[in-house]
Fold each of these.
Amino acid sequence: MEQPHTEAARRLAAGDGLLIAPEPILPETASAFWKYVRAGLIGAEKARAALSKLPERFDVLSPLFPLTEDAFEIAVSLNRPVYDCVYLALVTADKRLAAGA
């Protein structure tokens, strides 16, 4: 089933750049697959197969703990849920690391 941004996600996954995400991307993706299975849009076996290969699609899966304090600070400043701000904290950390290199 095509969703908004499906094609952009495919291009990103197939691209030459680094694919980096915080580890919560794994259960978030599993939850999305679960919803698709419940709705009858994909079979459970197909979802299981995709999930088993998911970690290898990423160049880096960042641990959650080091991002937590930054995510909290971003959440406070933007008035957004901390969970959502983990992704922003990862981008911020990556830019700081790149600038220091």
Amino acid sequence: MSLSVLVVRFGSLGDVVLTTPLLRAIRRAHPDARITYVTKRAYAPLLESHPHVTAVVALEAGEGVRSLARRLRGTRWDHRLDLHGSLRSAALHALLGGRWGTWAKRRGRRALLIGLGVDTLSPPVPVAERYFEAARTLGAAPDGAPAEIHTTPDDDARAAALVGGRPYLALCPGAAHWNKRWPAPHWRALARTLAARGHAIVGIGTAAEREYLDDPAVISGFGVGLGPAAALLRGARAAVANDSGLMHLATAVGTPVVALFGPTSPAFGYAPYRNPGVVLERDLPCRPCSAFGGAHCPMRHHRCMIDLDPARAAAALESLT
């Protein structure tokens, strides 16, 4: 009988993307395994077409853990992997029972980096490989390949309709938290520089992020949904992104990326994973100031992002194309 594996990672986008090397390794070790992935509804489309996922159970907006547990109880699980490590996933442990594989979030290391600027591990272990700690009993090991996200034919068709067959560069100005976002004037300056050099430009993100690149020279891929966004990133010659989910999505579809790091640090394990990329960051005594970003700059100057010059980003992007 094939193994039945339950994988839980509710979000966010980048974290979900970075679980895919583990999915591939489980599939390689156990070709007949039934892998069920539990995630938020927003991220389900990226996994429903994934070749290493058998089924997706979407946590609906406003749904409680008890309701989710009722939907999962009808299946016998040989292995349960908690790749989230939150109070909600811990509640799911209690409701479903059984033994769960977990991973260490290295909170102590993060605290030393943020509080004292002290790094206890060099080089840092990428988060994508730390997830493997939860699957010790499955015989899965990292294979050195990047994360992987697969688009559908409909995603590809919608992306192609937007760009009309032209080569292009992708700019992704959004991030979950304000202080991780490069300022809008910098994005516009970069877009103008690239357009002057003859590049077609596609802006990618949520509908609300359109304001960062509201320019006639920029083809809008804002608000198209995650599947078409992944297809747009796959078709790009290279991309520029903040430390964000779209940065990880770009690497997972094989697109070289310039990653802009400000309040956070690649030392937390979230650098572009196993894919050509350039990290731009400023060496400031106040950074990193956060593991995930926040609503303001604690020092009230936001120099970690403001001081990343658009000309430097343009040069890094050209080096990847």
Amino acid sequence: MHKILVMGLPGAGKTTLSKIIARRLGGVHFNADGIRSEISKDLGFSLQDRIEHARRMGWLCDQVVKAGSFAIGDLICPTPETRNAFGPSFVVWLDRIQAGRFEDTNKLFVEPATYDVRVTKEGTAEYWAEKIVEKIRPLFDPKSPTALFIGRWQPLHMGHIELIKEGLERVGQACIAVRDTHGKDERSPFTFHDVNQRIQDALRAYAGRFIVIPVPNISHVFYGRDVGYSIERLSLSEEVESISATLIRSELFVR
């Protein structure tokens, strides 16, 4: 989930923490006051207006997530209704103060029944940002079960992406090996740097769950008995499997 809700009473430190999280994740930060001044000028602070404000901010975050980036919504979200309007998200609750500067908000505020991280008054914003980022974007663990994909990826296309995603969903993390075939023939026009960049961009949503490595031009894979791993062909939809790298290459270059 790349949609993050940073919620809590006014003055709890939501904006400071949100800015640090956005910087660490390379995400987009939406501040409630900023959205009110530019997009939601028609809204007040009644419960219904707060619900609509949360819905609009949730929608903005959804668009960023659809584009493959992290979105951080920084708003009070004082009631279950406003949180539902914001939509499914990774919830960070700043529980650092007992009351904010607005009495009407204090009376309205209901502590969340569920959340992913509860930020207490102990620890700096940098400390909590580190904890939150660790939960959102795990570090690749070389000792955990890992799916191996070997290919030229010339160029990387939707069929490749769907294949790798399937492996990630099944196993948890992946090692994507890029065969060293650049310049060997017209079928390999892209360097490792080009291929790696495309993979990193396409799988941004899975950051921390895959690594990309260069390997020699592997043409055969052999194994002995009792090797401790399985070799399996992943079957995807006919539409995905019909995608042709040759056709894509022909459309990328002028001849």
